[in-house]
Amino acid sequence: PLVELSTWTPTKKNVISETSHGWLVRLKYKQTIVNLGKYEVRVLEGVIILYGAILRPLHGFQRVFAPSTHALPVIQCVSPYGAELEIKSCEDTISRLERLSPLYGRLWNAKENVELKPCRKRWSFANIHRLSDDPYKRPLYHLEVPSKWEQAINKICPLPSKPVPRVMACGPKSTGKSTFSRLIANRLLTMTREAHESIDSVYLLDLDPGQPEFSPAGQVSLVEMHQPNYNPPFLHPSAHQPFATPLRAHFIGSNSPKENPDHYVDCALDLVNHYRAVIKKEKRRSPLVVNAPGWTVGTGLQILLQLLKLLDLSDIVYTTEDSSRTLDALEENGKAYKLHIIPSQPSGYAARTAGELREMQMLSYFHQEAVEDVESCPRWDMTPLSSRVPYVVNYGLDEPDILGIITMGETIQSALLPTILDGSVVGIVEVDDDDTRFSASTFTRNAEGGNLPYLSSEDTGSTEPLNPRNSRLISLALVRGIDAANQSLHVIVPPTNDTLMAQLEPQKTVLVLGSLDIPGWAYTEDMHLETSRNGMLKQREQGADGSFDEDISMEGVDDGRGKVKPAPWVQTVTGEGSGIMGMKRRLRRFQN
Questions:
Q1: Where a domain ends, among 133, 162, 196?
Q2: Could you tell me the CATH number of the domain that includes residue 74?
Q3: Are residues 298 and 424 in the same domain?
Q4: Residue 568: partners with Cβ closer than 8 Å, 6 or more residues away
Q5: Which residue, 14, 214, 310, 353, has most beta carbons within 10 Å?
Q6: Position 420 in a domain
Q7: Phi, psi of 400 (to 5 degrees)
Q8: Quick one: where's region Disordered (predicted)?
């Protein structure tokens, strides 16, 4: 059967003009248009809704990245007299990451479509009317907003005279919590002029460490949003101006609150108190949107009920109509808030697993470039982390750069610490002067552990986590290697956090090791880049028809052959049964 994603199709009447950059189009009332790829859209006349945001000419260009891995945003005309839009291509560097990871492959519009007009082949987006419009035949699907979702959004959004909402989206996994949080935040940021005059930002309290919105996995955070968000998390792996401002974050060290529920609740409480302090100090009329984790049974339900007591919410949105103990508990405690029960989000085929999406977000986080102009678009660097100049962190007794290392969860034997730490992702945490637990003498050193300063917990069997009131996460880092001879760690930090790193004080800095996913993506970047480079050089020399292809982009690709050295953590093994040509790849930790 034909599956229609857009009700709008291009004709001579509704396409005002088109160039090699994009087109001006006209939509009728309630018509929808869906694009795959990267584009900027501006309303010239009328009103549209895009991912919950109500957009008018005053809002200017909105940048949208619509990859095939997620539901494609729908542009819908909501003005009775129609709307005129400008949709144009936009430059980006996120596509480069495909050369470092196959997970970034086939995300965008296919330019091999022979049916496209020559000018449209240069666009960074493609209008998708039917699934058959995609040459790759991917199982694309568009964002569907059920009528009950729209009703809940309209009830939650305040009138000018009403208090601003504090709303939480909660429910089981994969029911649409994150999607609803984006929809309601976008709506609040683009409300009518009368209501919008006193709402210039929305605070997002992200309490889902497994699928966070503005950070990699393993942390909870408070972010101030200034502009609507139309893009998947791996396209904004960290909050940045002018889009959003990170206010405070805590390292959970895990993809779930299960590892230490009490510490998780303490971190959430600290973020709530920080939000209240900011609101009180700046006297802002700013709403709060809370994205809760999908763990809602057993201990997860107890955590959820604790959060409800702490947050003083005005509205709770439960993203499934199925009966459950969680729903019963929410209804029993519903005197202090309005409970909105909505159906689960209609979802399509999952092109990436939750683990793969976390991997994409972590890779994006470490490769995002720092930009000097806050108005600039985010950019990504395709240089493998093995070629990045690391920070050298001295942990010796003479002028150390850190207080020490803290391991979360069960105790790690000191002899195993160097092995586990090497090649892992850690949190760089700043500790306040008020925390009297830590000093240089607090941390233990011994020869079998490489003299690494660590917080010993062999007596209790587990390490007490940092007090969130006296600490905050600065950045994640990848431990590239341990130089035992010089007693230093080599760590890779995202370029976006270089300024924060320069402000760290040794007597206030600790490294925290949790139980995050092993960063296998970092160990294979050189291998994938070499494969990509060889393939692109071959395409460059000879097109599919045997001719030289001038359109193959070689930006960032070495012109020479054979210059890629084997990655230090990837080993080639020969032997019987080891794969094609008797060779295979094996992962290995970072080495000096």
A1: 133
A2: 2.60.120
A3: no
A4: 386, 588, 590, 591
A5: 214
A6: yes
A7: -70, 155
A8: 541-565
DSSP β-bridge partners for residue 373: none
CB half-sphere exposure, 156, CA atoms < 13 A: 33
Query: Are 167 and 298 in a shared domain?
Result: yes
Q: In DSSP terms, which residues pair with 219 in a beta bridge?
A: 251
Nearest one of 435, 491, 490 to 468, comparing CA atoms: 435
Residue 508 lies in a domain: yes
- Dist CA 455 CA 181 (whole Å): 38
Q: Average pLDDT, stretch 504-509?
A: 91
Judge if 109 and 156 occupy the same domain: no
Cβ neighbours of residue 11 closer than 8 Å, sequence gap 6 or more: none
pLDDT over threshold 60, residue 324: yes
Residues 155, 340 contacting (CB under 8 angstroms): yes
Residue count of the chain, please give it.
Answer: 592
State how far the Cα of 457 lies from the Cα of 110, in Å rounded to an integer.
54
If you search the block for the tokens 């009966």, which residue do you land on? Answer: 323
Separation of first and last alpha carbons in the chain: 57
577, pLDDT greater than 50 = no
3-class SS string, 444-475: ECCHHHCCCCECCCCCCCEECCCCHHHEEEEE
Give the tens place of pLDDT for each residue, 149-172.
Answer: 999 999 998 776 678 899 999 988
Taking the whole predicted model, whether its pTM rises above 0.70 is answered as: yes
Q: What is the mean pLDDT of residues 517-534?
A: 92
The CA–CA distances, whole Å, from 412 to 79, 376, 426, 513 equal 62, 44, 15, 10
In the numeric block, which tokens belong to residue 567? Answer: 């990655």
Q: Which amino acid is at 317?
A: V
Q: What is the pLDDT of residue 459?
A: 63
* 29: number of Cβ within 10 Å: 13
- 201 in a structural domain: yes
Which amino acid would we find at residue 510?
V
Q: Are residues 433 and 331 in the same domain?
A: no
Domain that includes residue 468, residue range: 385-521
Q: What was the pLDDT predicted at 563?
A: 44
In degrees, to the nearest 5, what angle opens at C-alpha 193 toward C-alphas 188 and 199? 45
pLDDT at 299: 86
User: Looking at the structure, do residues 70 and 168 belong to the same domain, yes or no?
Assistant: no
Mean pLDDT of the chain: 84
Q: Is residue 270 part of a domain?
A: yes
- Give the pLDDT score at 568: 53
What's the angle, vertex CA 95, arms to CA 97 and CA 111, rounded to 5? 140
pLDDT exceeds cutoff 90 at 509 = yes
Instruction: Classify residue 129 by its DSSP letter.
Output: S
Q: Please give the torsion angle defined by the CA atoms of residues 568, 498, 368 and 75, in that order, rounded to the nearest 10 degrees.
A: 160
Q: Is 414 in the same domain as 450?
A: yes
Number of neighbouring beta carbons within 10 Å of residue 577: 6
Domain count, the chain: 3
DSSP code, position 225: E
State whether 190 and 69 are in the same domain: no
- What is the CATH number for 287? 3.40.50.300
Residues 182 and 115 both lie in one domain: no
